[in-house]
Amino acid sequence: MYKHLLAPLDLGFTTLKNRVLMGSMHTNLEEIPGGLERAAVFYAERARGQVGLIVTGGIAPNKAGAVAQHASLMQTPEHAKSHRVITEAVHKEGGKICMQILHAGRYAYHANGVSASAIRSPINKTTPRALETKEVWETIDDYVNSAVMAKEAGYDGVEIMGSEGYLINQFIVKRTNHREDEFGGSYENRIKLPIEIVKRTREKVGKDFIIIYRLSMLDLVPEGSTWEEVVQLAKAIEAAGATIINTGIGWHEARVPTIGTVVPRAGFAWVTKRLMGEVNIPLIATNRINMPEVGEKIIADGAADMVSMARPFLADENLVLKAIENRAHEINTCIACNQACLDHTFEGKLSSCIVNPRACHETELNFLPTQNPKKIGVVGAGPAGLAAATIAAERGHQVDLYEAADEIGGQFNMAKVIPGKEEYHQTIRYYDAMIKKHGVNLSLNHRVTADELLKNQYDEIIIATGVSPRKVNFPGHDHPKVVSYAEVLSGKKTVGKSVAIIGAGGIGFDTAEFLTHNPHHVSPSMDVEKYMKEWGVDMDYATGGAVEKPEPEASPRQVYLLKRSIGKHGKGLGKTTGWIHRASLMMKGVIHLANVTYHKVDDEGFHISVGEEQKVLPVDNVVVCAGQEPLRKLWDDLTSKHDRVHLIGGADEASQLDAKRAIKQASYLVAGI
Ligand code: FAD
Ligand code: NAP
Ligand code: SF4
Questions:
Q1: Which atom belonging to ligand 1 lies closest to the Cα atom of 467?
Q2: Mean pLDDT of all residues in the chain?
Q3: Which residues belong to CATH 3.20.20.70 in the chain?
Q4: What is the pLDDT of residue 3?
């Protein structure tokens, strides 16, 4: 079915079994005690899942290049020996694995960062030291040594990280390279660093070793590389001896989202396509490729020879196997939320996945067949109840799942209607497939009662009844202008041309996004050209870096986003996605008000104080997004009457609840039942 994606790729000295690369991800596994053994299990599962080639997270060639003080290095025979556990585990499963060599340059989060010039990055507090000429040559040697050690460790190759704004990129681009020696000035001088690295690495590792070069094809920063320079570099990298060129999109400091869920699927494949035909070695397309059909189309359209998927392999280790066996509908799709992967990495926590808490926890969380099948009743088919019911059934229990609504999904049915969150639909589709596959007995439109549950004599009862939106109680809270987010997002109530939102948490932000989008127009996250225009990406590549003035579509209404607390809006949003939400609402002219006291709502509008200043917002509607309260009535009714009742998800704890906690809690509970 996916004949282009699943076709083997002959690299001359070796053949990849298909065109899918598991892209590099920094999971923090390599940094924790016993982490290499855990990483071995993690990668081996993906190899068993038939992925064509794996690339590890970035490993530094020297101390200065480490992303953080204690980040992993590959410098010595001892380092090489310690990685053998990974390569042997992958090879045992018939897989192939390359180690990524990453020098962070000025993105290093430690005091000894170095770069081409002493210019601080806008996303780092420390200013790097400019490398002396002699040190640049030593750095090249360190890259080569790292590749040699990787070979000794048993890796099939290396990926040299030349994009995303890391050290190599910092040398290539004028904005960060003000040097006057042989590594600065002309473009030829600025690309000398990567070319020497690839050339000297090839000389040392021999011809039968994969060298992937990750080339920044679209910097998305002012004064970035021009298209002509990108082509020139690609040709030089090929001549220097690279086996494959992978695509890099955007520096970390770029103000254009490149992997968030707002990015259309395969949104940047057009960039790789531009380079097709300019070189003779295979090219890999990247970014927001999350399902086999997306990768298949890219290759069939001639936009790349291979596709890289990284986070999708956190969400589902068997993604390729399911494609091979025509079971793509069973794939647990990456929804590009970053909540449990990249956000964790940036917080120094171990990565995982919102929809698959087993990711990076393979040695501690397993859903083994039960030796003691039980009769289990699960109430509520939101993320928590769906995870609990399907995993319990997969393990061999007999499961009844009750849902009061006429569809499964719980609050994800509201999340999926937010422009830019269309992927959330996929999680519901996945659970629907799992319900059918594992034989969960689902009853929709069934608000189950405590008596009914008791009558059915379950061994275990799992309450996942979720939450209800919190109500406000100032004068006028019952005025027709006041509506809840649930009424608005479910389409039960429509709002006027001017709207105030109470509460600037995740749902307040999402509701603002919903209300500033014209429902009759396609969402930019579903249309590549519209997306690029909205965020200021010049698809004609007329200037270096390809950035231009964003041209967002005007909002159909004026929106005010209010909160009682002081400080910046959206502080509690994800580390790697909060800025996207803030920038998006800024572009739509949303007025952010903090330190607000709510007085009353009447026909005139919303009476509030902002600090000491009293004002009336002349709004047509007030949408309440003031958090949630747990729905625990069933639990209260049952606990004294049944000794095996469990409470999970929002019903357990509504404050700061998210789907990550709901699914994880359900998974750990059911793994042990
Ligand atoms: P719910 O999803 O509330 O599901 C509970 C279910 O139980 C409901 O379907 C309900 O009908 C059913 N039920 C209740 N009582 C009964 C009964 N007696 N009998 C039968 N059925 C019953 N979280 C994130 O992590 N990331 C996000 O990006 C994100 N975005 C969101 C965007 C929006 C607009 C909203 C509203 C929420 C978002 N969330 C997000 C929050 C996330 O959806 C919730 O944390 C999650 O749904 C909680 O799961 P749950 O299963 O505990 O509860
Ligand atoms: P939330 O993040 O707790 O925000 C609710 C907001 O309402 C608070 O910021 C609070 O702000 C305000 N509030 C609380 N009680 C109030 C009251 N009595 N009167 C007026 N205002 C009140 O909750 P949420 O927005 O409902 O989101 C629920 C969960 O879903 C969150 O935990 C979030 O993780 C998850 N979610 C995540 C995303 C995402 O993109 N990652 C998106 C949507 C939802 P003040 O106190 O400052 O007024
Ligand atoms: Fe994808 Fe979100 Fe899972 Fe990360 S946490 S892998 S972005 S679904």
A1: 3
A2: 97
A3: 13-346
A4: 97
Report which bound ligand comes closest to the CA of 509: 2
Distance CA 658, CA 76 (A): 43
Q: How many residues does the chain have?
A: 673
pLDDT at 575: 87
Q: Is 662 in the pocket of ligand 3 (CB under 6 A)?
A: no
Residue 337, ligand 3, Cβ within 6 A: yes
CATH 3.40.50.720 in the chain, residue ranges? 375-468+629-671
List, as own/partner pairs, every contact residues 106-112 make where C-beta atoms lie below 8 angstroms and the sequence separation is at least 24, other chains included. Answer: 106/167, 106/170, 106/176, 107/67, 107/165, 107/166, 107/252, 108/64, 108/65, 108/66, 108/67, 108/68, 109/67, 109/68, 109/69, 110/66, 110/68, 110/69, 112/63, 112/64
Do residues 594 and 567 touch, judged by C-beta distance below 8 A? yes
Residue 185 backbone phi and psi in degrees, to 5: 90, -110
Structurally, at CATH architecture level, domain 375-468+629-671 sits in 3-Layer(aba) Sandwich (3.40)
Q: Give mean pLDDT, residues 527-545.
A: 97
* CB-CB contact of 35 with 361 (8 Å): no
For residue range 452-493, list pLDDT tens digits in order: 999 999 999 999 999 999 999 999 999 999 999 999 999 999
Tokens of 446: 């069934």
Amino acid at 331: I
Q: How many CB atoms lie within 10 A of CB 584?
A: 24
Query: Which of 25, 341, 352, 430 gets mutated to test ligand 3 (max ligand atoms within 8 A of its CB)?
Result: 341
Residue for token pair 């929106």: 559
Q: Report residue 312's pLDDT band, with 50, 70 and 90 as the boundaries.
A: very high
Least distant ligand from the CA of 598: 2
pLDDT at 57: 97
Distance (angstroms) between ligand 3 centre and the Cα of 315 equals 6
So what's the pLDDT on residue 655? 80
Single out the catalytic residue among 166, 402, 458, 541. 166
Give the architecture-level CATH label for domain 13-346.
Alpha-Beta Barrel (3.20)
CATH 3.50.50.60 residue spans of the chain:
471-517+555-626
Specify the pLDDT at position 69.
87
Say whether domain 471-517+555-626 belongs to CATH 3.30.360.10.
no
